[in-house]
Amino acid sequence: MLQALPLSSGRPLFLEVAREVRRWSAEPERIALVVGATDPAALARVRAQDPAAWILCPGIGAQGGDLASVCEHGMTDDVGLIVNASRSIIYADNSEKFAVVAGQKAKELQEEIIEAGFQYETTFAVEGLAWLDKNYFKTRSDENKKKKEMKLF
Asked: Nearest 5°: phi and psi at 146?
């Protein structure tokens, strides 16, 4: 994997890119990072380096990413994750029953999120997108956190 390539500093490329991205903005809460759900160790390293970063985690479902592992390695008390499942939903069926089967797959992801104790926010198009935040209701009542979330979206 190119992103794991060690640089002269000995640190992997992905950590240097993540650090540089944070330097680009005077408003760091408007920056988001992308870390694949299939590499929980990388997610843990990015989260340790930047505990306040918004992180999009693609790869739940067909790519083999595990929702529980993503939550374990990526959640903080201050910021949640945005996770999505695409292929497991959009390629769930290729018959005339596609809409029903895709809807069922999206519902399964929603149920998995809820069973794990997290708040399911919404589904966009046919991709399951969830805002995971251990303190969802507290966050929603905190006007500053709510404004940060709305800026991102």
From this structure: -65, -45
- The tens digit of pLDDT for each residue in 22-56 reads 888 777 677 789 999 999 999 999 999 988 888 99
Per this entry, what is the length of the chain? 153
60-106 per-position pLDDT tens digit = 887 888 888 888 888 887 777 888 777 888 788 888 888 888 888 88
Separation between Cα atoms, residue 63 and residue 57, nearest integer Å:
11
Ramachandran angles phi, psi of 45, nearest 5°: -70, -40
